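Sanity check

After download, print the first record. It should look like this:
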Amino acid sequence: MSEIIEKLDTSIKEMMIPEVQDYIKDINKLIEEKKAKEDDYIALEEMESMYEDLVDIVLAIEENKISDEDAESIYQNILSLMDESKSH
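Expected structure tokens:
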């Protein structure tokens, strides 16, 4: 496995998936407490979709179905997402 694919795999498994799961739990808690707003439901759908995408990427990595170029692009997108979330 190349270095960029390892970095991508690690960042998804150790940072992105746990963060998305935590966010989904937080939204579900709001829903259970009947405190959720329409934006929360939209965010939940988006986070669930993102989680599925992340799992698909991990599976592609495990099955050697991802190129270094694709891994680099996805990794850069993840870094951009993380920078955006830090600024909010």
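If your output differs, re-run the checksum step. Summary of this record's structure: The chain has a mean pLDDT of 95.
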